[in-house]
Design a protein that fits this description.
- By secondary structure, this protein is α+β, with helices and mostly antiparallel strands.
- The protein has 18 helices and nine strands.
- Strands 5-6-7-9-8 form a five-stranded mixed sheet. Strands 2-1-4-3 form a four-stranded antiparallel sheet, with helices on one face.
- Strand 8 and strand 9 form a beta hairpin.
- The longest helix has about 70 residues.
- It is elongated, with a radius of gyration of 40 Å.
């Protein structure tokens, strides 16, 4: 954020540089009129200087941290200096415009549109361009060859940025493409020796395109302009080339002076070929700029291929739709609530109902391309075809999520029920049976008749009751490890670590537990799953890894993350998944998490991620 005082200073400086450039151009025009200087070079420098100064001042005033505006202002000074030098007869000053064309504008394109280089190593071509500029101006052929290579590299970087860029960057770069198309259009009359007047005007469009792309890239539907401009440019070039070639060929093989109808026949032939070629070119250009909106079958095929290659969430599905139709934003809305989205919703939105999304009212929300007021009929036709499979996909995903949530709720309820059963068995039945045992002891002491038999009977009863108590305790431990309630998860793992201080064969094993000191209270299901997975991983390390050190690390955020790592080495046959590994994966899946066990060069590891929401 630029401070207001700095912003006022940079704005004043920008418009001051603009005033200097305009004053120089005005003086140049007066001197040129007085001296009778040729109008063409003065007009060219004047038009370019005015365009560069206006655009540079606007950019520098509104984007003072972006160097492109300042570069354009400097270029306007070079054009003004060249315009001034023409009526004064200064041969060196007349070449000042080349500084703008050879160095400043290529640098502006290199850092377009952010003002930053595409990558750190692009500083090398930038410095090479600056070093070659003086030699290019004096006309040294090797320098011109180097300059041409650098210009090709800069153009290639623009193409790569378009291919890899997001929606905003692509629209900004398309403004440059439109300026190039306009200049090529103006170049055609010059090639046919009709004069350079149109080219003098269109040459000023490059700084204008740069300014609009940075400040107001949403001004128009730039894709439509580029598509139509490129279409008719290619058609014009093709018609001129075909017509000229045929006339030249027939001029050599026929006597055109005696066959005056030849030119008319050629014109008719070219006209007949014009429309089929136009239709095919329009399809190609629309596919590049708008995706597959003209061909619903191809759009479905593209969507299917993307899903086969990278099947994932609803977000991945929407990204495939957005790429297929070159849309800025696509989202699923269910009962008025957005459930998945791709892109950014910054403009006009349109809604397409999804009839196959089930009883709930599913909708596909589409972001209209910047510069358009609504989606075209072709877009709506493709979306109406895609609505059925998208509705099915939305319903299937929502049902899957509901199933997972239901399973998680069942697991949570089961663990809560186990906690309740443990409490009832331990606090209710346990003391009761213990009381019976004590009463039996008293009965034995009070027995008067047949004391020997009574004593034997009571002894057996005492043993049976003791066995019942042991069985109850075993059931309690199966429902939920008592150590979790007595010590918590971390304390229970410390106890497990002490128990495994020696591994098979009596070799010592160092087990450390690294956990947060302020461990939050965990849901019952998550706590049990975390303990069982950690305990099983520690047991596997003690029995099978041959490790000397095992570390358990627990971190808590939106998810509970458990990592058990040992420094052992896998056997000659590697790791063989067994019951323990399958049990850990199943326990994690029951609560909606995941667990992976894998060997590594420095030992083995078991990693589990358990969600804490919506528990």
């Amino acid at each position: 954020m630029v401070p207001p005082s700095v912003h006022r200073l940079t704005t004043s400086l920008a418009w001051g540089m603009f005033a200097v450039a305009v004053a120089g151009i005005a003086v140049a025009l007066v001197l040129a009129a007085a001296e009778g200087t040729s109008w063409q070079p003065v007009t060219a420098n004047t038009a370019m200087g005015i365009a560069l100064s206006v655009c540079g001042a606007l950019l520098a005033a509104q984007r003072p941290t972006n160097p492109i505006g300042w570069l354009l202002l400097i270029a306007s000074w070079a054009q003004a200096a060249s315009a001034l030098a023409l009526p004064l007869g200064d041969a060196i000053g007349q070449q000042a415009w080349m500084l703008s064309a050879v160095l400043i504008l290529p640098l502006a394109l290199l850092v377009f549109p952010t003002g930053r280089l595409p990558g750190p190593w692009w500083a090398v071509p930038a410095w090479a361009l600056a070093a070659a500029t003086p030699f290019v101006i004096i006309g040294w052929p090797p320098a011109r060859a180097v300059w041409l290579v650098l210009i090709v590299a800069i153009s290639t970087s623009l193409v790569l940025r378009y291919r890899r860029g997001d929606e905003v960057l692509r629209r900004q770069l398309l403004w440059l493409v439109l300026a190039v198309i306009a200049n090529v259009w103006a170049f055609l009359p010059w090639l046919m020796r009709l004069g350079p007047a149109l080219l003098l005007v269109t040459s000023t469009l490059l700084p204008v395109a740069i300014t609009i792309a940075i400040l107001r890239y949403r001004l128009l539907d730039i894709r439509l302009l580029v598509s139509r401009g490129m279409l008719y440019l290619l058609l014009s070039v093709g018609v001129i080339a075909i017509y000229s070639s045929l006339v030249l060929f027939l001029g050599r093989t026929l006597n055109l002076e005696t066959h005056l109808g030849a030119a008319a026949l050629l014109a008719v032939a070219v006209a007949l070929l014009f429309n089929p070629v136009r239709v095919r070119l329009q399809r190609v250009l629309d596919r590049v700029l708008y995706g597959h909106r003209r061909d619903p079958v191809r759009a479905l095929s593209h969507l299917s291929a993307r899903l086969d290659a990278e099947m994932g969430s609803l977000d991945d599905l929407l990204t495939a739709v957005r790429d297929a139709l070159q849309l800025p934003y696509v989202a699923f809305r269910l009962q008025g609530r957005e459930v998945a989205a791709s892109g950014s919703a910054a403009g006009v939105l349109e809604v397409v109902p999804l009839a196959a999304s089930g009883a709930a009212s599913g909708e596909l929300v589409i972001g209209v391309r910047p510069g358009q007021s609504r989606l075209s009929g072709q877009d709506m036709h493709v979306l109406s075809v895609l609505a059925i499979p998208l509705g099915v996909a939305l319903r299937a995903t929502m049902l899957s999520e509901e199933l997972q949530q239901s399973r998680e709720r069942i697991v949570a309820a089961r663990e809560e029920e186990r906690r309740r059963l443990r409490r009832d068995l331990h606090d209710g039945l346990g003391p009761t049976l213990s009381g019976v045992a004590y009463a039996t002891d008293a009965a034995r002491n009070l027995a008067r008749s047949d004391p020997d038999t009574a004593v034997d009977l009571l002894v057996r009863l005492r043993g049976d009751i003791g066995d019942a108590i042991i069985e109850i305790r075993r059931l309690v431990e199966g429902l939920r490890p008592p150590a979790l309630d007595e010590l918590g998860l971390v304390g229970a793992l410390h106890r497990e670590a002490e128990r495994l201080s020696y591994q098979e064969g009596g070799r010592p094993l160092t087990v450390s537990v690294d956990a947060p000191s302020d461990m939050p209270e965990l849901p019952a299901a998550i706590e049990v799953a975390a303990y069982r997975i950690s305990a099983e991983a520690l047991n596997n390390a003690a029995k099978h890894s041959g490790a000397e050190n095992v570390r358990v690390r627990i971190t808590v955020g939106d998810e509970l993350h458990i990592l058990v790592r040992d420094d052992g080495r896998p056997g000659p046959n590697g790791w063989s998944p067994g019951v323990g590994m399958a049990s850990m994966s199943e326990r994690a899946a029951e609560v909606g998490g995941r667990c992976e066990a894998r060997p590594g060069p420095d030992g083995g590891s078991v990693e589990a991620v358990l969600p804490l929401k919506p528990w």
